[in-house]
Amino acid sequence: MTSTADHPHYAELRAELDGLTTEAFRPDLAEIDRRSTLDIARTMNDEDATVPAAVARRLPEIAAAIDATAARMARGGRLVYAGAGTAGRLGVLDASECPPTFNTDPSEVLGLIAGGPSALVTAVEGAEDSKEFAAEDLTAIGLTERDTVVGISASGRTPYAIGAVEHARARGALTIGLSCNAGSALAAAAEHGIEIVVGPELLTGSTRLKAGTAQKLVLNMLSTITMIRLGKTYGNLMVDVRASNDKLRARSRRIVALATGATDAEIETALAITDGEVKNAILTLLAGVDGPAAARLLAASDGHLRAALEAARAH
């Protein structure tokens, strides 16, 4: 049998993991498997309840990263997530939900996962250990200095995430490093370091738990608030929603109703003359303009409905 001593690399890595909060062992939970199911569920729920407070402690850093991201995206840049395993999957999930929610082009918010798309459902061994893979993936999407790259890694030491941030920063792109350990290499490598320290996991080292929840909360903020800054919403209404199925078509009509107070007949007419574009339909109803005028006003306002309304009322 081969011992760890025969592999200095593993001994070094083990020592590194020993020093990570996300990998820490909880002696108080050493016999959790002997507890009742309800007691385990209650303990797990109590652990999860600590995550929002950990996020709250980093809101200034999160807000600064969002403002910087929105400024780049307003100039035509993209938002690119890069991570391995759970972190990578969360990035892909957030990216994939932007087109239906905010009517973004699928190329505007991208999720890169170590090992490629197959890693979403099957672990690709060794992919996370390569900085080079990250550089290759970013080169393949034609990274520019207008883009923002978010490296995601619970440990903050994953080579793929760090490699993505280093490659992006060297090319002038905005970089954000999201991790769940203080003093992480990932945060140090990025222009904007965000470290959500959630403490040891219920199952030692299982960072799909609290760390994964923390990452999901931050990614929700990053994409949602960036889209609010870019004018993808009107108040708290998703006025850029893409009506691609019956539920979303019904939601689009409800959004127009909430924004305007118009009758069903007026809403149907407004959507008919604006090819179903919710934002344009609201503008025709609130400003009393026709479809082409609404499109022109929105184009001149970079898609910001409030600004387009003010421009229409100023005339």
TrEMBL record:
Keywords associated with the record: Carbohydrate metabolism, Lyase
Pathway: Amino-sugar metabolism; N-acetylmuramate degradation
Enzyme Commission (EC) number: 4.2.1.126
Enzyme class: lyase
UniProt-annotated catalytic positions: E97 (proton donor), E128
Alphabetical list of Pfam families matching this protein: GKRP_SIS_N
Alphabetized InterPro entries for the sequence: Etherase_MurQ, Glucokinase_regulatory_CS, MURQ/GCKR, SIS_dom, SIS_dom_sf
Recorded catalytic activity of this chain's protein: N-acetyl-D-muramate 6-phosphate + H2O = N-acetyl-D-glucosamine 6-phosphate + (R)-lactate
Keyword Transport appears in the UniProt entry: no
GO molecular function term, any single one: lyase activity
Span of domain SIS: 69-232
Taxonomic superkingdom: Bacteria
Any further remark recorded for this protein: A lyase-type mechanism (elimination/hydration) is suggested for the cleavage of the lactyl ether bond of MurNAc 6-phosphate, with the formation of an alpha,beta-unsaturated aldehyde intermediate with (E)-stereochemistry, followed by the syn addition of water to give product.
Known partners and oligomeric status: Homodimer.
Family note: Belongs to the GCKR-like family. MurNAc-6-P etherase subfamily.
Function description: Specifically catalyzes the cleavage of the D-lactyl ether substituent of MurNAc 6-phosphate, producing GlcNAc 6-phosphate and D-lactate.
Protein name: N-acetylmuramic acid 6-phosphate etherase
Organism: Streptomyces siderophoricus
